[in-house]
Amino acid sequence: MVIHVLTNETYTGTWYFGKTKMIDDGKKRKPKTKCGLGKQVPRSRDEWIPVEVPQIIDPDTFARAIKRKEELHVQRGGHAVKEYLMKSHLTCSKCGYAMRGQFVRRKHQYYLCNGRRQVVSLCDMPSIRGDWVDAVVWEWAKMIIESPENLRVGLDDVQKELEQENQSLFNRLGIIEEQMTQYQSQLDKLLDLYLDGNFPKEVLTERKSRLEELLFNLGKEKNDLLAHVRHVTMTDEQLNYIEGFCAKIRKGLDRVDFNTKRQIIELLDIRGKVAFENGQKVLYLKCLIDPINSEEHLQRLPMQISPSLCCHNGTPYMVTARLVLPNYGRRTGQKRKKNSAPCRGAVLFNQG
Q1: Which residues are within 8 A (CB) of 292 and not within 5 positions of it... i.e. 6 or more apart?
Q2: Within 10 Å of residue 107's Cβ, how many Cβ atoms?
Q3: What does the DSSP assignment read for 227-280?
Q4: What is the distance between the alpha carbons of residues 248 and 309, in angstroms, rounded to a whole number?
Q5: Which tens digits make up the pLDDT trace of 199-223?
Q6: What is the per-residue pLDDT across 124-183, written as a single tens digit (0 to 9) for each?
Q7: When you count CB atoms within 10 A of the terminal residue's CB, does the N or C end of the chain come out lower?
Q8: Dist CA 96 CA 122 (whole Å)
Q9: 15 Rama class: left (phi>0) / alpha (psi -120 to 50) / beta
C-alpha cells in the first residue's frame, strides 16, 4: 500500500483530468459509460487538465520512489512469461483482431483471439494450442530454409486450384467494370445536359452525387477483389536466389534456442492468420524474404552467416502456405487421431 502512495503523482498535490480520449479505429465495440464509442488512447501531457488536491508527499520523495521502483524492477527481471513464437505475428481471420498468448490450467499454451475479450464479444473463433502452432510454424520455416527447392513441388496443381478459385472473382470484376462504364457514361451525359440547361440544376446535382457515390463504391470493391486475386509463379532465377538466401542461415538450425527461432521468424517476417473451415482449424502462413530489410536481422543471429546477401535487385519474395492444424477432443485435450500428422497443406510461392 505504501509503494502505491509514494508512486502516485496525485498525492504530490495535483490530480490530472483528461489523461485519455476515445478515438474511432473502425472496430465495433459496446459504448462505454461516459466514454463513448471507440478505442481509449492516452493524451499528450500538455493536454491534461490539472486540479489541485491535498498534498501528502513532496515531489522529491515521489521522484526518489519512482527511481527506486524502476531499479527494483530491473533487478528482479520482471514477471516470468511464457514463450510464444508467433507473438504479435498472428491474427484472426473472422474479426481481424490479433491473437494473444494465454496459459491455461498451468499445462497448455493457447492463442486466443482478442476479439473475444471485448465488453461484448465480437468473435467466436476457438482458441488454438500454442505449442502446436509454434511447432507447425517452425517446421514450415525449416522446410523453406533447408529445402527451398521443394517449393517447386506441386506448384502446377496449386496453380490450377488458384485459377478455379479466382474465376468467380474475375467474373465479379467483369460485372463491376461493366457497371462502372455505364455509370461513367451516364455521368458524362449529365454534364452535357447541364451545359444545355434543359434540366434544373438541383436535379442534375443530386443525380451526379448519386452516380459518383456508386462509382466510388464500385471502385473500392474492385480494388478489394484485385487484392484477393493470387498468382503463383516461380522462375529458375527466383529459386536460385531463395536457395542462396536460405543457405546463409541453414547451419546449426537444429540447435537454435527460442530467442534465435524468434529472430528467424522476424528475419523471414512470418505472419499467420487463423481460420475455422469445415470444422477444421486452418493456419494461413506467409513469409517475406526481403534482401534489403533482412541485412540487419542476419547480423544479429548467433550462427556463422555471411553479412552480404545475394540481393536479387532488392526484390522481396513472398512464400505462402495453407496448413490444417490438428483437432483435439473438447474434454481430454488429446488429438483425435493418435498417429495424425501435425499439419498438412499446400505451399505456394510468388514474387512480392
Answers
A1: 311, 314, 316
A2: 7
A3: HH-------HHHHHHHHHHHHTT-TTGGG--HHHHHHHHHHHT-EEEEEEETTE
A4: 8
A5: 677 777 888 888 888 888 888 888 8
A6: 888 888 888 888 888 888 877 777 665 555 445 555 666 666 777 788 888 889 988 988
A7: N
A8: 10
A9: beta
For residue 96, the cross-strand partners are none
How many other C-beta atoms lie within 10 A of the C-beta of residue 96? Answer: 15
**Which H or E run includes 286?**
strand 280-289
d(CA 302, CA 313): 27
- Residue labelled with grid coordinates 514450415: 140
Place of cell 473438447: 330
What is the C-alpha R_g of the chain?
28
Q: CA 301, CA 267: separation in Å to the nearest integer?
A: 9
Q: Is 95 left (phi over 0), alpha (psi -120 to 50) or beta?
A: alpha
User: Which residue from 261, 312, 305 is spatially nearest to 289, judged by alpha carbons?
Assistant: 312
Per-domain boundaries in the chain: 2-76, 81-152+230-352, 155-228
